[in-house]
Amino acid sequence: MLFNFVVSLPSTSGNPIQQFDHIILGAGCAGLSLAVRMAAEPRLAQQKILVIDKAPKAGNDRTWCFWEKQPGYFEHLVHHSWQQLWVKHPQGALPLQLDGYAYKMIRSIDFYKHGMQQLAAAPNVQLHYGNVQSVDATNGVITTDGGTFKATHIFSSVLLQEPVMQPDEFYLLQHFRGWFIETEEDVFDEAAADLMNFRVSQEHGCAFMYVLPLSKRKALVEYTLFTEEVLTDVQYDAGLQQFMQAELKLHIFHISEVENGIIPMTNLRFPAQEGCVTYIGTAGGRTKASTGYTFQHIQQHSEQLVKALLNNQTTALSMPQRFHFYDSVLLQILHERKLPGADVFFQLFQRNPAARVLRFLDNQTSLWQELRLMNTTPWKHFVPAALQQLRHLRRKVG
Ligand SMILES: Cc1cc2nc3c(=O)[nH]c(=O)nc-3n(C[C@H](O)[C@H](O)[C@H](O)COP(=O)(O)OP(=O)(O)OC[C@H]3O[C@@H](n4cnc5c(N)ncnc54)[C@H](O)[C@@H]3O)c2cc1C
Fold it and tell me: Residues of 3-27 as b/e, b for ≥16 C-beta within 10 angstroms?
């Protein structure tokens, strides 16, 4: 792969600081999603773009799953997709009516490779590997351990300092360990996946398994929790082992790969913009607070940003405030644990058309659809949580 690498010495050595139109910090999901779209846009071909990351990607460090109806921008990278989804609970199993949605998986290694190939082919894009040490948002100056760079505008998926939490904000973690398993016999239906299987111990808080078959003999089984504290490796492995035997009735299998991850689930306000820096990705608050899903929100944001750039702007519309409120209510319910998270999600899917729930989790529903969803929640718990969140909101606005 041919690439325009930038090697730049700090300005103190007398070398001029290299100037760009745009610098993108981080070549992960958000940085590459934006950079690839900018590189593909002929109307931005005259703009010099620098992408900075601390190191090249060495492997498949994550798999992204998400739902959508239409083929997406990275459709050709979809590794597997499912037309049938289940939500399972000790009380029953719900086959979801997806109304045209498919649940899709992209392996990060395929995404990184494709992204880097696209950028290498774009003459106006350069890449620099270095650890970002400081960002001067007033003057657009980035310092890494390998050089200093300047741009008119910066898009950053790198947060050098986390925003300060307010006392009324929640910071839960979606933490998980997944096993890619292989069996000796055909056991899986590769067209059907468990989106949430709550038939696991809830002793640590809201916990469920993803079961994502990739073939009749291969699946990703992921033990996922929405709680404040992570588990030990031994606890994750014990949970997975127990589920294999008790729920999947699998005693003989081979683990070919392990995926670990932690995703913030928080209603903390991430900065959207600071001086000439626009924040993107998780650093820009694009992780859905109540679910941890991020991939699709990043894609929507990247698309909006490229449109904005074509109009000489650098910010995109943020999501309607009411979705922040719904997320806060759900986080409060999960945090307080008066109502088991397993029951909340199971009932949401049991009492509403699945496609409406998925649209809601994508922040795409109308107010009318949201009222209908709210009407199906256990009022005894949701009304006090909603009132408390409204009070917090009024304090912030007032
Ligand atoms: C294991 C895992 C699985 C996930 N699965 C899903 C999923 O199925 N569906 C979904 O919607 N979301 C998922 N997520 C959440 C989310 O989609 C990912 O975290 C996503 O990668 C976020 O994109 P990002 O660009 O904000 O951050 P990243 O992809 O982490 O990119 C940030 C980049 O910045 C670079 N960087 C950081 N600090 C510096 C520095 N100081 N200097 C230079 N470079 C730096 C990093 O090397 C990295 O490349 C998952 C997350 C994890 C961790």
Answer: eeebebeebeeeeeebebbbbbbbb
Identify whether the C-beta of residue 110 lies closer than 8 Å to the C-beta of residue 79: yes
Asked if the ipTM is above 0.85, the reply is yes
- Its CATH class, for the domain covering 11-60+108-164+270-310, is alpha beta
- Please tell me the number of Cα atoms within 13 Å of 184 on its side-chain side: 4
Q: List, for residues 283-314, the tens digit of each pLDDT value.
A: 999 999 999 999 999 999 999 999 999 999 88
| Among 37, 33, 92, CA closest to 66 | 33
Average pLDDT of the chain, as a whole number: 93
Provide the residue ranges of all domains of the chain, joining segments of one domain with +.
Answer: 11-60+108-164+270-310, 171-265, 321-397
Ligand 1, atom 52, lies closest to the CA of 261
Which residues have a Cβ under 8 Å from the Cβ of 359 and sit 6 or more positions away?
365, 369
Q: Which two tokens stand for residue 271?
A: 């900065």
Torsion of CA 59, 65, 68, 73, to 10 degrees: -10
Which CATH superfamily, name and number, covers 171-265?
A: D-Amino Acid Oxidase, subunit A, domain 2 (3.30.9.10)
- Could you tell me the distance, in angstroms and rounded to a whole number, from the CA of residue 341 to the centre of ligand 1? 25
Q: Which atom of ligand 1 is nearest to 53's Cα?
A: 44
Taking each helix axis from N to C terminus, what angle separates 354-361 and 367-374, rounded to the nearest 10 degrees? 120
Q: Which atom of ligand 1 is nearest to the CA of 132?
A: 42
